[in-house]
Structure formats: C-alpha cells, structure tokens
Amino acid sequence: MNTLVVVYSKFGNTRGVAEGIADTLESRGSVRVVSTDELAASDPEGSGLLVMGSPTHRMKLPTGFSRS
Q1: Taking CA 13 as the corner, what is the angle to CA 57 and CA 42, rounded to the nearest 5 degrees?
Q2: CB 54 within 8 A of CB 30
Q3: Do the strands 49-53 and 31-35 form a parallel or antiparallel pair, or are they unpaired?
Q4: Helix, strand, coil in percent for the chain, rounding step 5
Q5: Which residues contact 51 (CB under 8 A, 6 or more apart)?
C-alpha cells in the first residue's frame, strides 16, 4: 500500500510525530512524508492511505488553515 503523510509543523514537533508514523507504516509499503508547503495537487494520486497532521494552537488550527 502506498501512503502519503502530509504534515504542517511550525517548530518540528509535529513533523517528528509524522515521521514516527511513517516509520511504522513502512512495514506495510511505500510511505512519503510531505510538508504542506511542498504538497502538489497530484501528490495523493496512487495513495491507498492519506494521513494528515497539524498541531493545534490554542485549541484551534494554525493561522492560514481554513475549514472550506
């Protein structure tokens, strides 16, 4: 199974969690970790699993994220 892990991390802590998840999922197939800054519209193509991670700031999504 191909997995794509998309992560937003301001200070690197959430990125570390994403990489830990990716390390665990590698036993099941190919895994790529991509930051939201590097994500292209075509990146999810061919992925059987999409994992997204973001920290919370004051119990909300970081500035710049929308609920649209």
Answers
A1: 85
A2: no
A3: unpaired
A4: 25, 25, 50
A5: 3, 4, 5, 6, 18, 21, 25
Task: Note the maximum CA span of the chain.
Answer: 35
Q: What is the pLDDT of residues 41-53, one digit of tens each?
A: 999 999 999 999 9
Task: Record the tokens describing residue 46, joined without a space.
Answer: 């061919």
Q: Domain-by-domain residue ranges, the chain? A: 3-53
pTM of the model: 0.85
**C-alpha–C-alpha distance, residues 28 and 66, integer Å:** 32
Give the three-state DSSP class for 35.
strand
The token duo for 54 is 């973001």
- Residues contacting 52, CB < 8 A, separation 6+: 5, 6, 7
